[in-house]
Every structure is written in C-alpha cells, then in structure tokens.
Amino acid sequence: MADRHVAHLLIGGGLASASCARWLREGGAEGDILLVGREPDLPYERPPLSKEYLAGSSAREDAFYRPLSWYEEQRIEVLQRTSVMKLDVEAREARLSTKEVVSFDTALVATGANVRRLPVDGAQLEGISYLRAFGNAEQIRAEAAGRRVVLIGGSYIGCEVAATLTQLGAQCTIVMQEDVALSRTFGLDAGRFFQSRLEEHGIRLVAGVSLERFEGDGEQVQRVVTSSGEVLDADAVVIGAGVAPDVMLARSAGLALDEELGGIACDERLRTSARGIWAAGDVAAYDSVVNGRRVRAEHWDVALQHGKTVARSMLGEDVVHDVVPYFFSDLADWASLEYVGPARRWDREVVRGSFESGEFSVWYVDEGRVEGALSVGRSDDLDHARRLIASREALDDVSVARLGDAATDLAQIGAR
Ligand SMILES: Cc1cc2nc3c(=O)[nH]c(=O)nc-3n(C[C@H](O)[C@H](O)[C@H](O)COP(=O)(O)OP(=O)(O)OC[C@H]3O[C@@H](n4cnc5c(N)ncnc54)[C@H](O)[C@@H]3O)c2cc1C
Question: Which residue from 348, 309, 346 is spatially nearest to 325, judged by alpha carbons?
C-alpha cells in the first residue's frame, strides 16, 4: 500500500529530471510533481565542473538549473539525498530510501551515469580522482593546483581538466590510448588542431599507451606507469575514462535494456518497455528518427531536450523525439567547440574554413550522408548540419565537396 500518490514521479536529481519538471508545468500539468535525487544539491549543470567551477571562478549556485525558490513557486517537490530503491512497474509504485512508498500515474527514469573506474594496481592510493560531482571538482582543485598532474584519458574530461588546471598553474601530462587527443570523436585532423592548442600551453601528451599502474608511498600516489613502461611523476591524478549509464534501478525493475549501447532501451518517444514510464538523459538509449538508428548520448543539451519531450508526452501529446544531439566543449579559453551528430562512422571528412585560421567546420560524411559536424567559430554551419543529418539524404559527390567550399551557400546543399 502506497504512503502517497503523485501524478509525476521523476527519478534522478539531474538535468533530465529538472527539465522534465519545468516543461510539465509549462505544459499545464496540475498534479503533484515529485523529483527524487541521491545527491545533496538541487539539480545542477555538470559542464562547469571541468571548467569555471573547477577553476574556482564560479559558485555552486551558479550551476543550479533553477534556484530553490523556483521549485517552490512551481510546486515541484525535490527530495535531495534520497534514492529510489525499488521500482514496481506493475503496481506503479516506488520505494524510497526514506522507506516511503510513492505510487504514480507517470514516471521518468533519469538516473544518469557513473564514471568508469579503472581497476589497476595502486588505484586505491590517495590523490587519484574521478570527476562527476561538485565535491570531486573541489578535491581536484585543492590537490592539483600548481602541482604535477597526470590526466588519464584523451577525451573531453581529460583535455578540459588539463586545460583548466594548467591555468591554475599545474604542470599537466595527458596519458591516452589514442594517437591524437579527441580524435575518436573528431578524427585525426581536428584532433591535431585541439592537441596543438594543448601543447602550445605546455601540456604534454603521452599517446598510444594505456595506464599500467599507479605507484606511491603506500598512501599517496607518486607515479603513473604506462603500458610502454614510461614512469611519470605525479602529485595528483585525474581519470577521465568515460561513464557507464546507471541502470541499476531499471535492471531490477525489469525494464528492457540495450546491451550494446548500455542504457535503458526506449522507442522514438523515449518510452521504456513499461507503460507510463519514460527514460531520459545519459541513461536513455532511444530509437533516434534523426540519426536513423538507436543512440545514447551523454550530453548536457540531450538531457534538457529529452526532459522536454518526456514532459509533453506525459501530458498526452504524441511527440517523437526529433532533436539532433548537440554538445559543446571548452579547452579553457584556448578553443571552444560545438558538435552535432553523433557520427558513429564516416568515410569522408570535409573541412570548411581552415585549421590555420582557427575557424572551421568539419563534416563527417558516410556514403554521402552527413552523420555529424564539428564547429570551431562557425556555429551557423551547424544549423545546416542539423538539417542534413535529420534528412538522412545521401548527397552526390559534388554536393559533398561543396560542403567544404566556403563560397557555397550551405542552404543550397541538399533537397529543401
Ligand atoms: C565534468 C563534466 C563535464 C561535462 N561537460 C559537458 C560539456 O561541456 N558539454 C556537454 O554537452 N556535456 C557535458 N557533460 C555531460 C552532461 O553533464 C551530462 O550529459 C548530463 O549531466 C546528464 O544529465 P542526466 O540528468 O541524464 O544525468 P545526471 O546528471 O547523471 O543525473 C542523474 C542523477 O540521478 C541520481 N540517481 C541515480 N540513481 C538514482 C536513484 N535510484 N534514486 C535517486 N537518484 C538517483 C544520480 O546520483 C545523479 O545525481 C559533462 C559531464 C561532466 C561530469
């Protein structure tokens, strides 16, 4: 027997849930909205954690999605430091860590993702951090500013954190499996552009190697040993080895999961396998009509957009999620990038503008279809990329080549 009933139960205290709550009210929802989150803070934006919050130039409150007063005005109840321990999709009830049992009309599972931990020797030493929450950023800032820091991973977290810590006076080295930083997502040429920005500011990159082990004095990390046998002195280590969607609750509730992508399997309306239950954000693997395949994307804007789609759907609208995934990344103030996609594979890269000028877009094309596009200083190009990605149109060779011709109006490319 439930202790109480709500119209909308939002599980997870991140952006996807907060956005859903917002759009429920904006869409005219009148029933109770209950948002349950494990963390001590109100829902917040994580991008500042590797940027201005890590740098110490912004406060926690600046990262909050909305201040407490907004939740009160909107009659959105937020339970912090509270987990949903059990979800019964048949009885449509959730048991909270407070022992309270809440029944619901509709529910959202937006449990996000957890960092991937690297179980190597020495992993328990102090001074080794992962970055997901405010507290991690504070610890990294305290341990790393002005010291020798080794970053594990050549993707966004490793590169962004290295850039921010360098500005705080740290001497940073990135250890990565890739030959070129950020190349897994953006290819070698764009990757080299970003890597040169890092190197110009004194960051050393140790490429094409794995982490072998950490060494220390029994308590504190002192060295990082790579698979090639190189030994790097370190006062602090930050690991950015990706994240794994948090499907613990979904799995125990019997929701269908996507074993290949990880995450909760959803249809094109972000509905899970259980009636009246949706998923959103980092944890949702959904049939994307704009990408023509199932997609799971761990991006800030994706969480916001998913939340909005789910809210409209909860309110009875027949809404397919048709937003092209977008993200951004900043390497301190040395380079800012934006990207739409995600391209899973491509057989051609077309560059518009030039790397030398520092303003370019790169178009990732597979069998004539635009699958993704990267912009540095050419945001407007991404509007056209969104249209071409969503159209799924196979362009002929001439049209593909014109993507790279800055004199060609992108609006003229592809069927209109
Ligand atoms: C350091 C960092 C920098 C980033 N920078 C960028 C960037 O520059 N650009 C970009 O596009 N994206 C960036 N991202 C990614 C972006 O922040 C995420 O994609 C986004 O936060 C996902 O939101 P979410 O709501 O799906 O999940 P989360 O933010 O992970 O929120 C889920 C919440 O649910 C809680 N939870 C889990 N299980 C339960 C349960 N059973 N009961 C209650 N609560 C539960 C979790 O503790 C968590 O607080 C960054 C991420 C990090 C960590």
Answer: 309
Ligand 1 pocket test, pick from 39, 46, 64, 86 with the greatest ligand atom count within 8 Å of Cβ, gives: 46
Q: Do the domains 117-239 and 343-412 sit in the same CATH topology, yes or no?
A: no
DSSP class of residue 325 equals P
CA distance 123 to 145: 21
Q: Which residues contact 178 (CB under 8 A, 6 or more apart)?
A: 154, 184, 191, 207, 208
CATH homologous superfamily of 4-114+243-314: FAD/NAD(P)-binding domain (3.50.50.60)
- 366 near 345, Cβ under 8 Å? yes
Q: Where are the domains of the chain?
A: 4-114+243-314, 117-239, 343-412
Angle at CA of residue 53, ends 138 and 241, nearest 5°: 70
Mean pLDDT of 119-132: 98
The token pair at 404 is 């790279």
pLDDT band at 416 (very low <50, low <70, confident <90, very high): low
Helix, strand, coil abundance in the chain, percent, nearest 5: 30, 30, 40
3-state secondary structure (DSSP) of residue 343 = coil
Rounded to an integer, what distance in angstroms lies between the CA atom of residue 249 and that of residue 196?
43
pTM of the model: 0.98
Tell me what pLDDT residue 289 has: 98
* pLDDT surpasses 70 at 343: yes
Architecture of domain 117-239: 3-Layer(bba) Sandwich (3.50)
**In the chain, what is the greatest distance between 2 CA atoms, to the nearest angstrom?**
68
Testing ligand 1's pocket by substitution, the residue of 96, 111, 129, 329 carrying the most ligand atoms inside 8 A of its CB is 111
Q: Which residues line ligand 1 (CB under 6 A)?
A: 11-16, 36-39, 46-47, 49-50, 83-84, 110-113, 131-132, 157, 246, 249, 281-282, 298-301, 303, 327-329
Compute, in angstroms, the gap from residue 20 CA to the centroid of ligand 1: 14
pLDDT at 317: 98
343-412 has CATH 3.30.390.30 classification? yes
| Average per-residue pLDDT for the chain | 98
* Helices and strands: H and E segment counts in the chain: 11, 25
